[in-house]
Amino acid sequence: MIDVEFFALCVVAVLSFLAGVLAGRQRRSEHTAVKPICHCEHPIGHHEDKTGRCLAQVERTHYGKNGGRNGYEYVACACQHYTGPELISTFAVREIATDEEKP
User: Fold this and answer.
1) How far apart are CA 38 and CA 20, in angstroms?
2) Domain segments of the chain: what residues?
3) Is 60 exceeded by the pLDDT of residue 1?
4) Distance of alpha carbon 65 from alpha carbon 58, whole angstroms
5) Integer Rg of the chain from CA
6) Chain-centre distance of CA 89, in angstroms?
7) Bridge partners, residue 59, by sequence
8) pLDDT band at 103, cuts 50/70/90?
9) Which of 22, 27, 77, 89 is the most exposed place for a label (fewest CB within 10 A)?
10) Do 55 and 46 touch, CB atoms closer than 8 A?
């Protein structure tokens, strides 16, 4: 009797472990990498380094005098500051002291 109960307990434990592993793999595959994109939908490469101002061009519909659509025009993006995730390289890092600089 003890052997059957022990065997049943082991089977339940193994099945629970496998279900947890499969659920963990499925959850891990759903994660996506964070992309450095601003609220204006332009990547960080389209923004100035110092001010963060967006340098990209935006396509805007141009309307004629009679109110009909007359094509497109390109205007500067109105974004004044990059608001997306910061890159690690932009954080301040202490310089490493060389042998010459050590007291």
Assistant:
1) 37
2) 1-31, 32-103
3) no
4) 22
5) 29
6) 15
7) 74
8) low
9) 89
10) yes
